[in-house]
Design brief:
Oligomer: single chain
Radius of gyration: 24 Å
Shape: elongated
Length: 334
């Protein structure tokens, strides 16, 4: 976990769908998260936990609905979470479905660790380790989806004993109690969904042993083949590429875009052997070469790289390359 963790764009699609009826809000959502419709549509794309944190915070803010997770749980269509969901739906029992979900959760989100804990007569779906960039409302959606699927697919009624969240209640507590039809507590010691252990044996109407075997093999292959997610340095470089053009390339603005504090951003970059200043220098140097190749004027390049004046750009370029921008451009000409 930590800076190497990542989240599938499949987990962002429900947020986009929830804002689809508010074009201005959806546009603001994309700007704040530095996501695009094309990226969200890419089933193989992943984002950083910090981006996921910001995405949830912005979805709640822009929708004006602090209980948006409950609304999303009701509106999300079957199959929205791909192979992980289909493996669970084909399981013979609710208990096996939950075990498979815990097993393959990393395909969707490996920034958190969730486990099944059996205590006396209770079954707890418990958050064992939180993400470095928490998205509390995502846990509300997770538990709501588990209950919604159990109610829809279970061969008998499912009773929820209790729902507990470690974060503060974002809205109307009664709305959560009505939705789960159970006691709901916020500011709890842990985040967990509690049911009776008898729920483990509850059969699912979508059980399919043959299909489950095929899907499980496919999920295992994906789990092995999943590429390494981008490190924080790469995330900072991506944000800086756009921030330089809008004069927002200071650590405070970049950290906010990534859902971190400036101190946390510096600390995690240090763990990767970098610093904010060195990453910003790298981005400026790379972009300077590209802009020179594109024959932009020196004044335009200075502006696009966020320098206060062209002379500051000239000094930086000489420090990077040992040449002035003019000398570099002349050498590049045939």
């Amino acid at each position: 976990m930590g800076s190497a963790a990542s989240v599938s764009t499949l987990l962002v699609r429900p947020l986009v769908a929830a804002l689809a009826g508010q074009p201005a809000a959806l546009e603001a959502f994309y700007r704040a998260t530095d996501l695009t419709a094309e990226l969200v549509a890419d089933v193989d794309a992943r984002l950083s936990p910090a981006q996921f944190c910001v995405a949830w915070a912005e979805a709640v803010r822009l929708s004006g609905d602090p209980t948006i997770a409950l609304r999303i749980a009701t509106a999300t269509p079957p199959g929205a979470f791909g192979i992980v969901e289909y493996v669970c739906r084909s399981a013979p029992t609710l208990g096996e479905a939950l075990r498979q979900w815990v097993r393959y959760l990393g395909l969707l989100d490996d920034a958190v660790l969730v486990g099944l804990v059996e205590e006396e007569d209770q079954l707890c779906v418990r958050l064992l380790q939180e993400s470095d960039a928490p998205a509390p409302a995502s846990h509300e959606l997770c538990f709501a989806l588990i209950v919604a699927h159990a109610r829809a697919l279970g061969a008998a009624p499912v009773t929820v004993t209790a729902v507990e969240f470690a974060h503060r209640c974002p809205g109307d507590l009664a709305a959560y109690q009505r939705w789960f039809d159970a006691p709901v507590r916020f500011d709890a010691e842990t985040t967990q969904l509690v049911m009776s252990r008898t729920a483990l044996r509850l059969g699912l109407t979508t059980a399919d042993a043959s299909l489950a075997a095929i899907l499980t093999r496919h999920a295992d292959a994906l789990h092995v083949e999943r590429p390494e997610p981008p490190d924080l340095r790469s995330q900072v470089k991506r944000v800086l590429g756009a921030a330089l053009r809008s004069n927002d390339a200071q650590i405070e603005q970049v950290a906010r875009r990534l859902g971190l504090t400036p101190r946390s951003l510096q600390r995690r970059l240090k763990d990767e052997g970098a610093s904010f200043q060195s990453v910003r220098e790298d981005v400026r140097r790379e972009l300077a070469g590209r802009y020179l190749d594109d024959n932009l004027s020196f004044a335009e390049i200075s502006f696009l790289l966020g320098f206060s004046e062209p002379s500051a750009f000239f000094r930086a370029f000489k420090r990077w390359t040992g040449l002035t921008p003019l000398e570099s451009r002349q050498r590049a000409r045939p």
